[in-house]
Amino acid sequence: MKLGAAIRRHTAAIRAMLVFTVILGIAYPLLVTGIAQLAFKDKANGSLIKDATGKVVGSSLLCQQYVDKSGNALPQYFQARPSDATNSANSSDPGCDYSYSAGSNLGTNSATLKNTIEGRIAAYAKAYDVDPAKVPEDAVTASASGMDPGISVENANDQTASVAKARGLDEATVQKLVKDNTTGRSLGFLGEEYVNVVTLNMALDKAHPVAATS
Questions:
Q1: pTM for this structure?
Q2: Can you say how many angstroms the Cα of residue 107 is from the centroid of all Cα atoms in its chain?
Q3: CA 79 to CA 53: how far, in whole Å?
């Protein structure tokens, strides 16, 4: 190949690379980002949740654990489903740790998983005065990511009386907030209804503040 022809080919390749870099590496991302900010700003920015002072306290897409310093569930809050997103080196880590998003990776034949679930069933049944045979599945199993902020409506209903008692409220008041934070099936028929624990607990604190608990 002659030197002149080789230079022309390399020059054309470099020009093409520069053009597509500008189009696909700069213009297209800016266009998509602009559309997202205009049409879906909240979702594009992470569905962040702010408290009454405007401080970001989390995301409606990620679970939070409402526990005290010892890892015990706070009765004045609805509890998310169990989470295996924990720091294995910290036995007191209650889960929903964004740095360790994961499931347990235990199969249905695992004795460890069986014993864990049986323990969760017993604890849930005792805490919310529920027949162990009727404990909702999502109340004792972790999601694949360990970051699921949603629980079943049945699970939320089981917790309503306990939360209402802890806050000195009537159940109807709490039940209305549960309903307000319930998401229906996609397109009206896909999936199941669920309650977002994070937004529900924030709504509870906003409407009926409680004293800070350590």
A1: 0.78
A2: 23
A3: 24
* Average confidence (pLDDT) over 198-202: 94
What is the C-alpha separation between 120 and 184, in angstroms, rounded? Answer: 27
53-85 pLDDT per residue, tens: 788 888 989 999 899 888 889 999 999 999 988
pLDDT at position 214: 43
Residue 185, strand partner residues: none
Contact 198, 64 (CB under 8 A): yes
Boundaries of every domain in the chain: 3-43, 47-207
- Per the CB < 8 A criterion, the answer to whether 177 and 135 are in contact is no
Residues 155-180: tens digit of each pLDDT = 999 999 999 999 999 999 999 999 99
67-75 long-range contacts (CB < 8 A, ≥24 apart) are 67/94, 68/213, 68/214, 69/214, 73/127, 74/213, 75/162, 75/163, 75/165, 75/166
The total of other beta-carbon atoms located within 10 Å of residue 49's CB is 19
What distance in Å separates the CA atoms of residue 27 and residue 48, rounded to the nearest whole number?
27
% of the chain with per-residue pLDDT over 90: 59
Contact 140, 82 (CB under 8 A): yes
Query: What phi, psi does 158 have (nearest 5°)?
Result: -65, -35
Tokens 């608990």 map to which residue? Answer: 213
| CA-based R_g, the chain, Å | 24
Residue 204 backbone dihedrals phi, psi, to 5 degrees: -65, -45
57 phi, psi to nearest 5 deg: -120, 5
